[in-house]
Fold each of these.
Amino acid sequence: MPIARLQKFKLGGFARLLFCWKASVYKLLWREVLIFLLIYTVISLVYRVVLPNYPNVRENFELVAIYSYDYTAVFPISFVLGFYVTVVFDRWWMQFKAIPWPDRVVNNISAHLNGADERGRLLRRALARYVNLSAILIYRLCSKRVKKRFPTFQHLVEAGVMTSKEKDIIKKLPTDNPKYWVPCTWFVNLVREIRKEGRIESDPAMKTIIDELNNFLNKCDELYGFDWIIVPLVYTQVVTIATYSYFLACTVGRQYLDPSKNYTGHSFDLFFPGFTVLEFVFYVGWLKVAENLMNPFGEDDDDFDMNWIVDRNLEVSFLAVDEMYDTKIPVEPDPHID
Amino acid sequence: MPIARLQKFKLGGFARLLFCWKASVYKLLWREVLIFLLIYTVISLVYRVVLPNYPNVRENFELVAIYSYDYTAVFPISFVLGFYVTVVFDRWWMQFKAIPWPDRVVNNISAHLNGADERGRLLRRALARYVNLSAILIYRLCSKRVKKRFPTFQHLVEAGVMTSKEKDIIKKLPTDNPKYWVPCTWFVNLVREIRKEGRIESDPAMKTIIDELNNFLNKCDELYGFDWIIVPLVYTQVVTIATYSYFLACTVGRQYLDPSKNYTGHSFDLFFPGFTVLEFVFYVGWLKVAENLMNPFGEDDDDFDMNWIVDRNLEVSFLAVDEMYDTKIPVEPDPHID
Amino acid sequence: MPIARLQKFKLGGFARLLFCWKASVYKLLWREVLIFLLIYTVISLVYRVVLPNYPNVRENFELVAIYSYDYTAVFPISFVLGFYVTVVFDRWWMQFKAIPWPDRVVNNISAHLNGADERGRLLRRALARYVNLSAILIYRLCSKRVKKRFPTFQHLVEAGVMTSKEKDIIKKLPTDNPKYWVPCTWFVNLVREIRKEGRIESDPAMKTIIDELNNFLNKCDELYGFDWIIVPLVYTQVVTIATYSYFLACTVGRQYLDPSKNYTGHSFDLFFPGFTVLEFVFYVGWLKVAENLMNPFGEDDDDFDMNWIVDRNLEVSFLAVDEMYDTKIPVEPDPHID
Amino acid sequence: MPIARLQKFKLGGFARLLFCWKASVYKLLWREVLIFLLIYTVISLVYRVVLPNYPNVRENFELVAIYSYDYTAVFPISFVLGFYVTVVFDRWWMQFKAIPWPDRVVNNISAHLNGADERGRLLRRALARYVNLSAILIYRLCSKRVKKRFPTFQHLVEAGVMTSKEKDIIKKLPTDNPKYWVPCTWFVNLVREIRKEGRIESDPAMKTIIDELNNFLNKCDELYGFDWIIVPLVYTQVVTIATYSYFLACTVGRQYLDPSKNYTGHSFDLFFPGFTVLEFVFYVGWLKVAENLMNPFGEDDDDFDMNWIVDRNLEVSFLAVDEMYDTKIPVEPDPHID
Amino acid sequence: MPIARLQKFKLGGFARLLFCWKASVYKLLWREVLIFLLIYTVISLVYRVVLPNYPNVRENFELVAIYSYDYTAVFPISFVLGFYVTVVFDRWWMQFKAIPWPDRVVNNISAHLNGADERGRLLRRALARYVNLSAILIYRLCSKRVKKRFPTFQHLVEAGVMTSKEKDIIKKLPTDNPKYWVPCTWFVNLVREIRKEGRIESDPAMKTIIDELNNFLNKCDELYGFDWIIVPLVYTQVVTIATYSYFLACTVGRQYLDPSKNYTGHSFDLFFPGFTVLEFVFYVGWLKVAENLMNPFGEDDDDFDMNWIVDRNLEVSFLAVDEMYDTKIPVEPDPHID
């Protein structure tokens, strides 16, 4: 049960979150920070050890360093990151809200499909299974985890969400497009039959079941849309170029130059670029936020746990339409009465 | 009754709000400000009292101070805070809007479930109780206050929102997932029975009751989603690192250096870092806004008063479906007639 | 009729709006500007008249002034104001959209509640009155103007929107919570009776009337939510502290220092801080925008005219369900035919 | 047919849009630019021709110029414009989406109001006319163009959207509030009659027609809300003051001062303030965006063409409910079959 | 099948996207970069080769270069781009969501239109074809690709989405406005007939089919609105002027001036304006994002593949209402049972 609740503290508050490791900025960034420090150190060593023998080259290097420093001073990556991450964040939450939950459909099945006998039970289970199957088929397209769990239709059959006959029918369907909508069509056909049988007793009930199925399918379509139409590559590239070129410039521009040369802002030498590393963690960490939010259906710590959703939905669906269908709870006076 | 209305004044306006204490920035921040000042003072004392004996160390300290000052000058924490707080603010209001209110469901029960006799009354009360129970079960997951009030199912039984038999049934249910949806399933089953009894007279009425129940359940699901999927840790960490590293740099960089040394911008010594403290209150206060909004189901002054919501909803539900059910108000001509 | 339409001009455009007084930034700010100038002038006079006699104090004052100036130069109040006002602006419009209009409910009453006889007329008027009464009860909670107009239930009776019997019933209701939902419950009960009488002829009609009533009640709930859950105090305080501390720093930091002392940026003396006053109008004006939008149910020039809404809705409701109910407009061929 | 499609080019892209005149920034701004240049030139001439004779005044002028320049350097009008224009942009699109289209209503009339005989035809036309009339009445309030086209009810009668009898009825209606909702009430009354006649055969049909009429009326209400509640004047004034005071400061602060005086940043004289004019076009152009979007129901090139909407909707409505009502299209096998 | 899924990498992440070419910033920008470099180089050569012979002109050029440099230093194009791109991005996604999908309509046809005989099949196919035809007619207005594929109605007939008789009827229709709504009217007329035939058995079914058709038509209207009302030209021009004038100023202002002259910030000569090119890629790339998002119905790599949508929708529609209509899937116990 994937509950990750945020604790609130009187003192420090968010500061305590700095000591988390799972899904943390450190776990995501330590490799990049090491690479950055390595490049910085190599350049630093060359400047301090090799270049003093070539005063001309050294002077040119210093000019390039100053030029790079100026660049990093004016480059507005905080804006572009701010706007970009906001856009990606909105999209991330829209994707979460697009995940279809079968609760409404199964409640309607349970309310309107009468019959506690075996056939009624089978019909309700079949309908509930169809909507879950549709959801799993679309999850397989979006989510690596679900794809790994159900790489082929056969795995779905083994997991009990599809029968062999259904597998054959869906496989033979002459279309190259994604087939996640097919079980919804079966659902519609079966509901029509059930209506004729009379187990769904009224037209408004029929209408409401089909409406909820359509709402469910809409969510699947929406999820498919998010998978298909991504944030335009050029936007992501522009932001990435901005961030990485900034730190490329930093590897040169944030070098401590020989204080004896009296360049402005270079009156001392601290060897370790402490605040530049903090800036790196900050800016590249901000970009990592976007990376993480961009595809929340992956396998990272912070990604949506789609396999849990699959299991929860199957369990709740079958409980609601079958096991709990006939539970008679005696209607008793509650203590508040009178 | 948790009304906190904003007064409007001709003169000063918001300025008057600066003198509030409850839920104020002062109440939230005074500990952090004291810690900041303590660190600042210790460093200041070391610089003024100890370091003069070690001129070399002192000079190095001064260089680090200037380096730190430059860092604080370019670091764009106002942007990242602005974007982050906006995102968290939107989420905060979405969470408020996700809180389920039973008003629609109880109005429908009252409109469509006929019968002023004892059984009719019991049925209406049971249905009203189920939706409130679902809401309380989801509140227990999100809200510390409600969890404290109802730590176990037994407390719910004692509070009269659940009967003992219901407790047994829900406890035995073979699932490890949150069970807030279970009373909604009971609701559906009971409605189906009532329809058969004929107390719900028409199919459209049945449909509309189930639809509203589903809308109610959707809100619960949404609340659960907000509890489950939080703002990615890495975003919060990036913002926190930015803010706290800024003020870490300030403890050194905003020291008043010996004016006799003629460092740029260090031509005088005021001892107390007045404006730096204001900046601290401003930036860390802004971060506190995010902390406060992030989990509005806690026990802070500004958090949603979920226990009041529980009480209000129970009271209004029972009033609407029971006490007021049979109130006959004579239909009289109103004064505006003709 | 509160129409305030924006004129468009070929030349100047918004510039012409600068000459409005009603609801203008001048009307809202002139007091604050005077206070700011007063403080500034007093400090200026002290510096120019008193301090020359105390050269030491004067020099310290000048250092403080420079320190303050530096603070105002780096302080990012434009960001925090920009983000804050945007958040408050969105909320302001959401509040307007949350105001319930009875048009949908009365159209449904008029369409589905048959009978041109006296009883039909009374029933329709009663239902229309109930929804308006609910709206007025919630307005009384939010809006000062409506509260002034109807300080007690008795005033509502005198205004003809409530009968004495209704007043007694609502007063006796054993709840301490706001009672704006009570007339909606009466509405539901009355509709149930009318359905039994047969004046509402069909189940879909019944369902649609209840649905619209619920939508209406939802708006009332939403309005109540806006009244109850305000923007967290700490956010408002942070923004206010930022703005006012900025101008506190300005009263000192924007003083013209003795040009003979050759402080950087202090090479001349203009006496009047012209552009600082413009900055004041701009930043504090921006904060005033937030103040104004925060509680739009007050009595300012720009606030929503809730009393007009009350009158308009009562008038339109009664016209639609009563006076115009039986208007027979002959169906004639229109000129476009053929 | 007001189609303005954006062309996409491989090279240059938006750059080509710079050569448009209609609705362009040049067309909107050339007057303002000329005025700005005029003021600038007058001041420049005074400085260059007159002031050399008064060295004291000249020196003071130079100090004021430097002071003004510093002001323009720190003033953050790009932020306030960015936030303001975003808010106005959102509102602009919401207004477009609030424009009511009768398509849904007329499709429902066409689907559910039976009878190909003359009376059926007249009834359908009357209903379709009523919704269009409501829309035109609300357009008359918002839009200058529609107001000019239909200055009085008589013009509506002449245009065939209202009969003389209807004009008399609506004129006599005892209310001072806008009457755009009146034809919707007629619609409701007429639908009730038609239901009794039996031409609308079912209750769900009746319900759906009234629902769509209500949705249509809601849009009208929304449009009325946008017309009534404008962006608070104080926000617009603050933005306008910021922009215009910036350029007022520019007319003095961006003067080329005598290079021989060696003021910082004044080492040369280019006579024409080229980049200042570009800044003017940019900032005032950005403000013009807001002006243009603020009231999109005017008569500018970019405004919504409400008269086209009036004509299109009338035409489509009558075509759908009348001319095309009885078109029998033979149902034939399509080529894709089998 | 246009799936473009984003890969996630442990190391580097977005950095890997920098090596994509399709839809990349390089592919979009290389022409502009070359032009910029060409202009820069020509000016550079003139300055280095020709101007030394004219010391006066050279000095003036240097002054202009410094003036231009100052301009580029203060010009806030990052803000205006950030705000503008955010606005355009939102609009881009709204356009995607406005694309009508026929899934809901065809599911309703399949559920409620009974009859497995030939006529039932023809009727279902005709209705499914009408909604697809409406969609294609609106796509032809928005999308270049679809317009190219179906330049005339005759092409639609040949593609089998329209019969010749339908073509004649739609051509003769006396209106100059877009006719995409016409097949929706046919749909309504045909549904009315089918209801009379009794193949649509219930009034709620009839209502729900018409409602879904109206929802479908609404999406078409929305798409038409996006095509008709574009982002005001003046906003786009302002942003473009800002960006291009910035780089015009750069071609002069970022020239390396003779270091022997000792201009501030011009103490060295690197010949190639490396970071200026990065800035160019960044800012103009950001503007390209807006260009790309502005009209997503074009033929660029990142544009929506409308032809795939046309094919997918036709295929799914016919499969759902015809081929799969009579598929009987045996209802069997699933493995999870008991």
Amino acid sequence: MPITTLSGKQFIGGQRVASGAAELISLRADNGQPTGYRFHPASRHEADCAARAAQSAFAAYAQTSCRQRADFLDAIADQLDALDDDFFTIVQQETALPPARLRGERARTSGQMRLFAELLRRGDVIGARIDTAQPQRVPLPRADIRQYHTAIGPVAVFGASNFPLAFSTAGGDTAAALAAGCPVVFKAHGGHMATAELTAAAIERAVTQQQMPAGVFNMIFGERIGADLVQHPAIQAVGFTGSLQGGRALFDLAQQRPQPIPVFAEMSSINPVIALPQALAQRGRHIAQQLAASITLGCGQFCTKPGLILGVHSPAFSQFITELGQQIEAAEPQTMLNAATLRHYRQGLRELDQHPGIAHLAGRRTAPAQQATAQLYQAEGRLLLAADTRLQEEVFGPVAIVAALDDDTQLLQALNALQGQLTATLLADDADLAAAAPLLACLTHKAGRVLFNGYPTGVEVCDAMVHGGPYPATSDARGTSVGTLAIARFMRPVCLQNTPPSLLPPALQDENPLNLLRLVNGVYQRDPL
Amino acid sequence: MPITTLSGKQFIGGQRVASGAAELISLRADNGQPTGYRFHPASRHEADCAARAAQSAFAAYAQTSCRQRADFLDAIADQLDALDDDFFTIVQQETALPPARLRGERARTSGQMRLFAELLRRGDVIGARIDTAQPQRVPLPRADIRQYHTAIGPVAVFGASNFPLAFSTAGGDTAAALAAGCPVVFKAHGGHMATAELTAAAIERAVTQQQMPAGVFNMIFGERIGADLVQHPAIQAVGFTGSLQGGRALFDLAQQRPQPIPVFAEMSSINPVIALPQALAQRGRHIAQQLAASITLGCGQFCTKPGLILGVHSPAFSQFITELGQQIEAAEPQTMLNAATLRHYRQGLRELDQHPGIAHLAGRRTAPAQQATAQLYQAEGRLLLAADTRLQEEVFGPVAIVAALDDDTQLLQALNALQGQLTATLLADDADLAAAAPLLACLTHKAGRVLFNGYPTGVEVCDAMVHGGPYPATSDARGTSVGTLAIARFMRPVCLQNTPPSLLPPALQDENPLNLLRLVNGVYQRDPL
């Protein structure tokens, strides 16, 4: 029996709207039964209205000050923090994620709203640059040129199943877009629609409280409607977290528009972990334990799950593989996010089982219904050198593949043959560092984040984080979807030439009333002109 | 008779390479006759070799320090400045551009190499950010995360016909890519191949002198080979300056690759100029003179040529149009860059002549062979409100269209209906500024650069310049192809987590040996940690 009442309608321009029947059914993750909540799939007209509502809000919202948007983001954070036990009960029903994890994820979600608020108050996202006039310059005088960054326009955001809060309705892409001054149209994730409605309602309360323009945030339900959204002329950028197939499909649609738009899709990564000899010799057993914990954390449902473990043939590496296998074998089955995720996981395992160059090493072969067991495979090193497709593709869930290379040279070749990654990890002791240097140089060209002596699950939300990387990790290596640099995806530079002082935005005024750090005639300074 | 000897071969990995016949013929712009220089079209194999040469150079070149790259760019600038009278004779033959203009353009080209060198010595392109570890943080400790920007990979660059130096072989895109740490494969422009060879040879001399890796710069001849280049897996980004049709074709190819890559194409802009009432009343005649000079400068062959002049119906605006027509009528015919450019110009005029909503106002209807005459047309205001295709499309050459709107409201509607632009200009006196404010707000969403009381031709190369704008002005509104921010197109962020001090790049080391301005725990500072 439902514990609260949900309307199941679209969020469009501050109104709740629906036509047709509420035929989308929210399901429990643990048994596939209905939670009792039903949702209206958005019609094409409603998708159009949502995009137009965002467009209508754009002119006013893009003109808000950084401080106003900071207050808005803080208000959203407060609303998220006020979500009650009923909310968590519903999220847990829809995702099977444990309560402690969900509480932590909520803190992360409101925390990243507040981090973007802090960023806006710091003001450097404006990127103010001023080159003052040189009327006496010969042969030609120089005009006064002043540059800043402004919002790119309405953004369509597609959330992920595996982070129903931090990468969904009020997640990182929404936070970055709203911080940039871009209205958002969010496509609710079908795996947690009730969660999405409660989260969107929290955002709406903040919109009202802060008197933001109606239409600054919109949300529509339904699966096929995402294509309409990406093709809508009002939409100027896309944020996406999910599968390679889904992300690439939206990317292709966006590039085929009359006016192509940037798509920031975070998609597929196998997150290689390279275990170097001295580290294995010193603490091989500990590494096996920690690595198994990272592979199985959250049932392996992280985009940064380590999926490929590499080393050079040696007795210590063989021993390490044995111990890693024991850890994987001992891991308890876990419930996956939904039936489709479990089905994809099992399909991925079947493909590994059938691959002639890949052998099953460890992992229980039977599991309770709806649950997944951790698995470990071993691939022949030659598959890596040949950039084998199956090996390069992520299997979402608690599975990893180990592979041993003949020597350091072959290891470097294998890394060079990898596609783009979100993360790459070097497990290295001091005595390994000389060997690690060329590997690091290679990995910085392959991944968005390179770690030493840690595990890639767990992505810190901070200024320096890069959660991105070359294709297919993302569709644009120049972006990050976690951390404050994420805002740059949704801003574009503009410059003003010989603008009368009364029309200059505060960021570019001579007096520097916002006390910004500005690049003035080639020197960073906070001084007035 | 040729005044120097050119081999006409590709520049690949520091070697001159050619197969097949030298069947590409360099032509004089003024009479279409051969200059005497012939070039070998690159074979597909040669295009592949050029891309591989760039890839081979990448690992070493991306690891060079900012200071090393700065020295390299300065050396290129010196080589450009050392090009002699024979060089200018050849450029003039191929482009019909006057000697003074070409000398100025050479100064601009070497000047922008030196500006990027200065930028590299300043070091802020690295974008260093450090979030230090918080081992005691609860519930989870924070790792040490350090972010920097690194080169995206080999870049294919396509130059423009209208700036044979500043937007061609050693032009802005080449300078930005080399500054970023990206090797370049340049596709020589068919309109000035001899110019391209002499320029590439100058770059090669700097490569040798500075002991840069062979393959850091490559150049191939031929038209159809550009598609191969853009599709080559080694190429990681594209810079292009030219037509909408050409840029879009390369963009589409790049997005259809197995691994899509960013394309920064600077394409089509009509650069609206809005003349406000008080400015017209105070100095209408002067504006007409200045505007006509901007329309006809360099035979209208600038991407920032003002192509659309807007105002509100009034006797002053009518008078201004009359005066502008007189100026256009009085303009002398000029030789265009080449026969194809002239053919396109005449085709564009024919389309305007045939358009039922557009009337011819002024301009001589006959011209010497190979020459173009300036033209002025008037369009009905309703065409703008309906976003008429012909009106939105650039006609490259000395032609502009004027249109009068009924009132301020309709003027704002007309601006809102415009596509993306490189520039937009407001001609406004103090008494116009209240009316200009909403127009400015609109134009900052439409253009990369908004000017007051100036003319858009003439693009300053400086930190604050934006030569970009929403589609179809460019294929990515988040880039600029002029000014130091252009380097950002070819860099991507990477972060390092818990990296041993001995493996940190200097930019991220605790001691801050490069004295960079870094974002450390949310505060910009140059202090060591």
